[in-house]
Amino acid sequence: MSEYWSDNNPFFKVNKIEDLSIFINNYSSPCYIYSRKVIADQYNNLRNSLPEKFSIFYAQKSNPNPEILGLLNSLHAGCDTASLGEVKSALDAGFAPDRIMMTGPAKTEKELRFAIQSNLLSVNVESLQELMLIDKICSELGKKQKVLIRINPKFEAGEKNRIIGGMGVSKFGIDIDFIPEVFRQAKSLGNIEIKGIHIFNSSQILDWNRIYLNIKDVIDTAINFSKEHNLEFDLIDAGGGLGIPYSENENFLDTEKLGNNLQDLINNPKYKDFLLRKNIILEPGRFLSGLSGIYLTKVLYTKESCGKKILLTDGGIHHLIRPVLIGQNHPIINLSAALRGAEKSTEYIIAGPLCTSLDEFSGNAVLKEAIPGDILAILNTGAYGYTESMPLFLSHSPATEIFID
Ligand SMILES: Cc1ncc(COP(=O)(O)O)c(C=O)c1O
């Protein structure tokens, strides 16, 4: 991966490497730096591309930092949550309860009770037993709860293998074949209001057409169930999964084409009446937060093993596990070498301090030649970075998080 990739990176479009010299010169420990502007740009770009009928609910799991929640709330996003802690963080950040949804396959009674008492927009139900529990809690509290039924569909998010007769075993959602029974039973529960359906079935999609077809499939599914079971839906949650490019040969998602095609769908007579009073929710995480963050780490030592050059850094997978967990390299830049105008590039293994050979950021990063003390930036680490890692392993200190405008 070439370092020049940074020329196209949204973080480095709004922050020149020179602007970061304050962090490079005063570096004390590994840190994440997030750009508020990149998050706002990503949100505004998506908001301006999508038809009005679409709401954007930020998937907090991608990065729950309160600054990010506050910023997205101020931009009028909603919030998708997956635990009691996430619901509390969303409320603390100022999201109105009717702009918060809660999803998750194994919610505890305590979590459900809190969600019901908080009057959330919806609890997205992932099993019949959960539905029964919600009904029971509601009857104790004298409340009604709006729910979306989360479906494990028979189509993938895209063109390939559509309607393939089952997406397979999943702990998420309820298999589509069981859904008629769930609707039948839900109707007999006095404290449940079925508001619609939820389908989230893929992540990191860069092709606008695949996302478009997925949303269309979700809407078709809603139409079918609404007709079959005589249910008036208000909400259709078509999930997240909007991708960002991690490598040079990947494109940025064309949100304009996605939005234009969704508008055509809404205007299509086949869908127009059904969609008239419906709200469609997208719940992107990575698309909003991913490009905003870089992770800085210092080269402590350089060494060679069996002909491979290795950079040993003070940061490791206790702060950023995603590259090794998902097997996806993130672009890496040697910021110090860029500032001193270094010319020559070399291929490196970049590895951290943990006592496991898993602790690598890359096995083949091409960087400007590094010397001990150089500060490296690992790009596109705003999503599934800080909180997805394993901070307690080897008792190192956590990374610092810094926001810049
Ligand atoms: C239910 C749900 N919604 C939204 C998301 C966000 O996905 P992404 O960050 O790919 O947009 C996830 C990710 O796991 C999810 O499980």
Can you tell me about this structure?
With 405 residues, the protein is α/β, with parallel strands linked by helices. It folds into two domains: 147 residues, Lyase, Ornithine Decarboxylase, Chain A, domain 1 (Beta Barrel), CATH 2.40.37.10; 178 residues, TIM Barrel (Alpha-Beta Barrel). It is built from 14 helices and 17 strands. Helix 3 runs parallel beside helix 10, helix 6 crosses helix 7 and helix 9 packs parallel to helix 10. About 1% of the residues have low confidence. It binds pyridoxal-5'-phosphate.
Binned strand content:
15-25%
Mean pLDDT: 94
Number of helices: 14
Major sheet description: 8 strands, mixed
Please give the CATH class of the largest domain.
Alpha Beta
Distinct small molecules: pyridoxal-5'-phosphate
CATH architecture name of the largest domain: Alpha-Beta Barrel
Please bin the fraction of helical residues: 25-40%
CATH superfamily of the largest domain: Alanine racemase
Tell me the domain tally.
2
Strand tally: 17
Ranges with pLDDT <50 over ≥5 residues?
161-165
Identify the overall geometry.
elongated
Distance between the termini: 28 Å
- What Rg do the Cα atoms give? 23 Å
Derived structural class: alpha/beta
CATH topology of the largest domain: TIM Barrel
